[in-house]
Write a structure and sequence with these properties.
mainly beta, two-stranded antiparallel ribbon, 38% strand, 10 strands, 112 residues
């Protein structure tokens, strides 16, 4: 589903853009598709203009195959993060991504 509109409704956010100190409060974000329907399981990233968010390190994350489903359902990771896909089901899985950002394919596998 392609999202065309983003409606950001901030109940309050105060941010001192000229310093490293920031304050924030609860906020509501709604992602709408081209038919104005809510899109679920969306990750929204807000970045301050002019700041280098380059990632350097050895971060890792885990996306489990359990009960024939991914757990967690959505996993947001920063570019450069290593992601493992352990399989806790008693049969093999095939995991793949056709994303333009990062295509990959893990053919039928069991265990780690």
């Amino acid at each position: 589903m392609r999202a065309q509109k983003i409606l950001l409704a901030f109940s309050f956010i105060g941010l001192f853009l000229g310093s490293s100190v920031g304050f924030a409060a609860d906020q509501t974000v709604r992602m709408l598709d081209q038919d104005n329907n809510a899109v679920e399981f969306v990750v929204v990233s807000l970045k301050k203009k002019g700041v280098d968010y380059s990632f350097e390190g050895n971060a890792s994350a885990v996306m489990e195959q359990r009960d024939q489903a991914f757990q967690p359902f959505v996993l947001a990771v920063q570019a450069g993060t290593s992601v493992s896909f352990p399989n806790f089901d008693n049969f093999r899985h095939h995991v793949y991504s056709f994303s333009k950002a990062k295509r990959f394919e893990i053919k039928l596998y069991g265990g780690d």
